[in-house]
């Protein structure tokens, strides 16, 4: 392959998995290719690009260890259509297939406009303009359940599910709503974008944007959806109306080869802002101008995880060494400060609120058990709040006194911290499911209730009174990875991440 993906830097979290995967045994290529063709190709596609089943390329498998892949081939995968091959293939054949899928294909995979256009699926049914159920449309939640690849539409007043539907395999990143909250767009790691009509409880359009996709963003005017891809190296813009292709923006430019880490919407700027994985740049794409003009902002470090201040005037990007964050003024394109945050801040999960009359941001850290609070008036660290381990997701709401942060990694993954935003002291540490991973919080529209995930296949969403911290209800769900309230997300309520 000409483009050497493995020589490029990769995110810290998946490093371990990648090292393991690239240690996969050399295969007798001929035999493995034939085994693939006869047993796997009809679902996983020619060239291992994916089809009914996910793509089987090293980049797409970065999060699955080779031993686990062999196990899936042998015994099948629960809650998917992947059958068990254990009675058809012997151990040596399974070993060969496992080795094959962790090898780069001889030909570099292509996903051009032709493949994108050919992948598009439109639901041609005539659908009505009124919701087919009765609920406060602004207080609905989409809960993504990655355990069995489903999503639940949850009524935020009654906490009763309205419907539950199958999604594409392995969704990642927050689903994004249209400004009126009627439609929600999902992205899968395999590149599928699905547009779901909440009023009619139906998928209305789908398109495959790439082979390995990071996330999507929707424009504030409701017209565009953009996908950030690792493979190919590009950003792809679609009409939000019917997911038809509007523009592909190649990110391998000026001799620099770069994947795209993520893309976000900056509503006051009418632009999308993209984080580059392998180039020292931030890209801004104007979505309100013809042909989506691009502005490239040079940075002095690789910045691939972002926090934006509420005005979208400043961007905080975590540096790759995980020891500090750069503050970039998005108007001038200049770096204006460096904030020392030694624990590898997870800025994408950062939230903002007011503390002592100052706007602050609070971010969990991926390497240390700490939440870092930074004054956005002077970019100084106000406080480092000790937690019981590295956290992944943090959330609050403008109407609640507390900020909630999980632990996610290590022995205390079952704990949930509740921090008082007025004092920056720990108000409580919740322990609702000892031994299980407890993560990710979202609030009802009014901020009165906090919904917390028990992140297990036989998990649940727990509803808490966000003031008394009493448990109100437990709704069984299959690894509910994220919950997204229509009002909080479409109104960019303070305390929600972008
Ligand atoms: Fe995520 C959001 C990157 C691993 C679950 N994750 C995001 C976003 C980025 C990101 C850039 C913001 C995009 C958005 O919401 O539009 N995630 C990364 C990584 O680089 C990392 C560390 C490695 C990787 O393999 O991609 C990573 N993420 C994970 C997981 O292992 C998680 C826990 C399980 C999973 O399903 O993959 C995970 N990421 C999530 C979730 C969100 C997310 C649930 C949305 C959070 C939200 O509330 O908005």
Keywords:
498 residues; mainly beta; Cytochrome Bc1 Complex, Chain D, domain 2; 4-stranded antiparallel β-sheet; 12% helix; globular; disordered N terminus; binds heme D
Q: What does this entry look like structurally?
A:
The chain has 498 residues and is mostly beta strands. It has a domain at 2-101: Cytochrome c-like domain (Cytochrome Bc1 Complex, Chain D, domain 2). It has 7 helices and 33 strands. The chain has helices at residues 12-22, 29-39, 41-44, 66-75, 91-101, 113-119, 486-490; strands at residues 121-122, 140-145, 150-155, 161-166, 176-177, 183-187, 192-197, 202-208, 212-218, 224-231, 234-239, 245-250, 260-266, 271-276, 281-286, 294-298, 303-308, 314-319, 324-329, 334-340, 351-355, 358-364, 370-375, 380-386, 394-395, 402-406, 416-420, 426-430, 438-443, 449-454, 459-465, 471-477, 480-485. The protein has a 5-stranded antiparallel beta sheet with strand order 1-8-7-6-5. The longest helix has 11 residues, at 12-22. The model is unreliable at 1-27 (pLDDT under 50). Residues 11, 13-14, 63, 146, 172-174, 214-215, 261-262, 348, 392-393, 481-482, 497 line the site of heme D (DHE).
